[in-house]
């Protein structure tokens, strides 16, 4: 057999003492007090209601909870009541043209001014009158930018060329 180390003996002893102390404290809680001070007994009698005062589960009617004010309802996450409908709502903004899907790469000034455009999917060289992707018509290639018309809505747009950084 294996020999028990002194440390293990100390741990077993501490465990036994804690079990004895726990049993002693639990027996003391269950025992009724033998004699209580007269002032303590009088104060306790006044503070605790008598069994006859308690309606218990046999009570047939229970009072309703008081109504909550709107701030308390909002604190509990309930939605506040809907505001009254507005008399006249503003008309929605007219639809605008989406952003131009190309970036300006360069400009050529041979007999006809042209712009070199680039996107993720393709590159294009365009001149005035060309239609890009079936949605954008190039109206003019100017020194400062590109004049376009978004064909589905007929909206004119100016795309300025980026200036080279110094």
From TrEMBL:
Any GO molecular function:
translation initiation factor activity
Signal peptide location: 1-23
Q: Where is the composition biased (Low complexity)?
A: 48-63
| Pro residues bias locations | 80-94
Q: Which region ranges are annotated with the description Disordered?
A: 48-94
Q: Which UniProt keywords apply?
A: Initiation factor, Protein biosynthesis, Signal
Q: Report if keyword Signal is assigned.
A: yes
What is this protein's record name?
Secretion system X translation initiation factor
Q: Which organism does this record belong to?
A: Pelomonas aquatica
């Amino acid at each position: 057999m294996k020999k028990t180390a002194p440390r293990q003996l100390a741990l077993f002893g501490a465990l036994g003492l804690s079990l004895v102390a726990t049993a002693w404290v639990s027996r003391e809680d269950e025992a009724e007090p033998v004699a209580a001070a007269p002032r303590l007994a009088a104060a306790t009698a006044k503070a605790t209601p008598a069994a006859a005062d308690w309606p218990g589960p046999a009570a047939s009617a229970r009072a309703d909870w008081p109504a909550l004010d709107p701030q308390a309802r909002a604190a509990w996450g309930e939605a506040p009541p809907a505001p009254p409908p507005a008399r006249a709502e503003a008309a929605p903004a007219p639809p605008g043209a989406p952003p131009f899907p190309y970036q300006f790469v360069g400009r050529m000034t041979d007999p006809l001014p042209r712009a070199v455009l680039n996107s993720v999917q393709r590159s294009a060289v365009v001149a005035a009158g060309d239609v890009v992707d079936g949605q954008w018509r190039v109206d003019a290639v100017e020194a400062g930018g590109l004049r376009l018309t978004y064909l589905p809505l007929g909206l004119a747009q100016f795309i300025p060329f980026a200036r080279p950084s110094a």
